[in-house]
Design brief:
Distance between the termini: 16 Å
CATH architecture: Orthogonal Bundle
CATH class: Mainly Alpha
Number of helices: 9
Number of strands: 0
Number of domains: 1
CATH topology: MetI-like fold
CATH superfamily: MetI-like
Strand content: under 5%
Radius of gyration: 21 Å
Order of helices and strands: HHHHHHHHH
Length: 244
């Protein structure tokens, strides 16, 4: 059975996207749109990176709490996971941006974007972490007990390294989903890539050129993210071995 595409494939694909984008921009005379779209790309990347950090933190916190904490904390973790998985990311953003001020809590659009998307993706990530940790064979716990290792040390030194190698592929998909979800923040007045594209479209009515460039930008970013995830996966596999 053939394995997943190699890193060289993604590098070649990324270069192909860049070449196509450059040719399209030149042929359609759309170069004047690039500076404005570039500003949006910067905001999109900032939200993606910050949201990913929050999502990872919340995912591990909620998953480990649900697995090992006392029952009141387990209920809190379960409530967080079910609420954010069971409601729309857009509604969550609207609630944080438009409803919280009714209670005297006002957050900037950037803060809402990072908080909303990070919590939303973190809820899905928590189930990935919980599933991969729970999938580690029970014999590993028994061996750690026989070696007189404490619970925290067992999780940190034995269970988590094995779970990490298994959770990388689904986490990669989740991070790409986070990147695509950033397009929602244009609806809370944040000038991301989608927001800049809408502004340009209203000003120039060059819909085909603008949104084709936006499509290529998202594709290029997702390819870079995929390549980065593959590099992280290779590093973990080299250090801890591949999941069985």
């Amino acid at each position: 059975m053939k394995g997943p595409p190699s890193k060289a494939f993604f590098v070649g694909y990324f270069i192909l996207v860049l070449l196509f984008g450059a040719g399209f921009t030149w042929a359609m005379g759309a170069g004047r749109f690039l500076p404005v779209l570039g500003q949006g790309v910067v905001v999109t990347v900032e939200i993606t990176l910050a949201g990913a950090c929050l999502a990872l933190f919340m995912a591990f916190l909620a998953a480990l709490t649900r697995l090992y904490a006392p029952w009141p904390l387990r209920w809190l973790a379960t409530g967080y996971i079910e609420i954010f998985r069971g409601t729309s990311a857009l509604v969550q953003l609207f609630w944080l941006y438009f409803v919280l001020p009714q209670f005297g809590i006002e957050l900037s659009a950037m803060t809402v974007a990072i908080l909303g998307l990070g919590l939303h993706v973190g809820a899905y990530g928590a189930e990935i972490v919980r599933g991969t940790v729970a999938a580690v064979p029970k014999a590993q716990w028994e061996a750690a007990t026989a070696l007189n290792l404490g619970g925290l040390r067992t999780v940190r030194r034995i269970i988590m390294p094995q779970a990490l190698t298994a959770m990388i592929p689904p986490w990669g998909n989740l991070m790409i989903e986070l990147l695509k979800l950033t397009s929602l923040v244009s609806l809370i007045t944040l000038a991301d890539l989608t927001f800049r594209a809408q502004q340009l479209n209203l000003a120039t009515f060059r819909t085909t050129e603008i949104f084709t460039l936006v499509l290529l930008c998202y594709l290029a970013l997702s390819l870079l993210m995929t390549l980065g995830i593959r590099l992280i996966a290779d590093h973990l596999h080299a250090r801890y071995g591949r999941p069985s």
